[in-house]
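User: I'm new to structure prediction. If I give you an amino acid sequence, what do you actually give back? Let's try with this one:
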Amino acid sequence: MEAITAEHDLVIARYTESLDWVLDVPESYRVHIYDKGGAPVSAAVRDRAETFVTLRNAGRESDTYLTHMLESGPGSGEFTVFAQGDPFEHSPDFLELLATSDDWSDVQALSWCWKAQIGYPPKTLLTPERSIVPGLRVRPELFSLSTFNPLEWVDSGAEAIGRGYRDLHRLPEGVNMCAHFLDMCELPDIAELAEQHLVGTHSYGAIFAVRNHLIEKVPERALVRLRQAAFGSTVHGYFCERLWLHIFGEQFVFPVRLPE
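Assistant: Good question. You get back a string of structure tokens that encode the predicted 3D arrangement of the chain. For your 260 residues, that looks like this:
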């Protein structure tokens, strides 16, 4: 029987979650596990992984993703998927979604919610017609680049993160915080685009896929600065999570000045 050639990469940011689900990942994926918790992992899971690296527990999943990009570079295949050690809380159809790569956009959100059981987002927004993938659950969230809050509901946690970022950097109300963060991380072109818009798009749990050639386009100095930011204040990790799609090319929406 002819061996299946891996077409994509799957990067997993693990703390102490069970990784038994990795055994069900399609064979078309090379699996890269970065472990920050040190909990036992079965021999079968280790054998399935092409990479198993232990990292210190700092910088949230942003550090893990950036470590992979800086040290391993973009994969040789078509897409790299980034996910947490338990993707199913945010993406209940995650394994099924891995088999749909032929239909993905260049930058593809792959999550559905933050925590459905506590109403984040409200269940009224988690309906089949809201999914961007027919038959599977995927719902990107629109959010304000200046307040960090989603557009369709009030997220007190996001509001607190935005307030924390403003206080940390001594920014007044109304400043486009996401443009500020992108500029701080040496992504001036994307920061300028953000400054011209009001709304961004994010994928809950930092679970998404991106074509590898787009990873190559991000300057190494920016990856280093993003990683430094992730190691700093906790709020910076959340800003990475909210902005991954845009860092790799997703368009911002709702321009500040509408065309005349």
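You can read the tokens as a compact description of the fold. Here is one thing that stands out. The CA atoms of residues 23 and 45 lie 6 Å apart.
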